[in-house]
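Weekly modeling sync, notes
Attendees: S.R. (lead), two postdocs, one rotation student

Agenda item 3: backlog of single-chain predictions. S.R. asked that every request posted to the team notebook include the full sequence so nobody has to chase files. The rotation student volunteered to paste the first one in as an example of the format we agreed on. Action items at the bottom.

Example entry:
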Amino acid sequence: MTISTIQLLLVADLVADLPVAVRLQRLVGSLRAHFGCGAVALLKLEQDHLRPVAVDGLASDALGRRFVIKDHPRLGAILQRRGVTCFHHDSVLPDPYDGLIAERAGEPMAVHDCMGMALDVEGERWGVITLDALEVGAFGAQAQSDMAELACAVEAAVRVTRLEAEIRSLRLSGGALPAGAPEQREDSEILGQSEAITHLLHELQVVADSELPVLLLGETGVGKELFAHRLHRLSRRAGKPLVHVNCAALPESLAESELFGHARGAFSGAVNDRPGRFEAAEGGTLFLDEVGELPLSIQAKLLRTLQNGEIQRLGADRPRRVNVRLIAATNRSLREHVRDGSFRADLYHRLSVYPIPIPPLRERGNDVLLLAGRFLELNRARLGLRSLRLSAAAEEALRLYRWPGNVRELEHVISRAALKAVSRGADRRDIVTLEADMLDLDAQEMVENAIVASVNQSGGASSVSRSVARLHEVVEDSQRQAIREALECHEGNWAAAARALGLDASNLHKLARRLGLKT
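Predicted structure, as returned to the notebook:
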């Protein structure tokens, strides 16, 4: 592909009516085809880190990673310079994509070249474009010249994408951005590209501009607080406070004072007037997390506030007007609590004017890998590792597991596995790969999910049998490897190996016999 051809393709995409993600993906794909390199990544600068917005040739979890600039000197150098920056195979600076090139995932890449360029939009540094190759000398003088010539087209694509995002925000906010609101970003802390999460984020964008109370419904660990923050950030109240109240942590004796405040002398120890959380959220948003835990006595007072916009401090004579939008969240079925009398029906109807169910992680497809990428990079930095990634078997295990604890459980699983890898003697200077056995996931549950997935995809018994057999083999191979490593580390001492693996000694002996490691 000649330089003029790729320029024409990029210009054609600029005028075409394409979704943002598609335009940027076509951009990095065209660049990779032209330069014939291993991977291309477009990263946006956000505060102290770079966020991948489009990648081609990198591992599945790359889009979920956040590259903190101080931890990645190559990216920092590209950001600080104008024009094209090259790092050849003998550079002493670590490459942020070591072990992440899909073509050679998990292999140390001591010999490869890297080229990058900072991107500016309207006079401000927007981010960077990076290209990685597996061959020495891939980015010579001609490649650098081509990259410099393509700079304008790449920056134009980024500029068009930014304008489209601003226009979308203006339309959704009725033609004007909220006064005092921070600049709207294309993303938030919420990671995901699945249909379920894309639909949810669009729904949040629409309802955020209203003043309706919102009830977030979802299992433990799905990230209800993050969605509440996004609602507030996209609303007209974004310039005012968002006050978070964990209702489950409020003792009944203090709940009224915490929410509505108290007057001096209202009870023993009340030596001063004290405003409550409603007054702290004046003009902004009050987020009542686990609202189903509120005592009935407090539910009545909350209902009164929602009905007339007034609160009354404990021990005070006069009510006070408040201007607060309410967002509530629960992992329980409030309908059932209404039926059993532990939650007021009238309050339930007031809170659930606009209920929003948040999908569990098991319904979000490959989003689990994006989220895993985020946690992998966090743990890589925390543990001082050169690179931290998942094996193919580990990725499959993450996809098949049902995640009863959702995103929070995934975070703990990745953190625990990373620590386990280091404790087993992983060299921090190497590419550390997390295998399936390190994740400590329920193998039986994964087998059941494999059966369901196979039935849904093919409807054939033979496909089900093959999937189950393949998964059993992966799990058992990982278990054998873990046991052998533990025994080797502890010089054949089964009791010590069991302790290292977190197993009871008798259970380890049984497992070893089943796997054919012991007669």
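Discussion: group reviewed the output briefly. Residues 141-172 form the longest helix (32 residues).
Action items: rotation student to repeat for the remaining queue; S.R. to check formatting next week.
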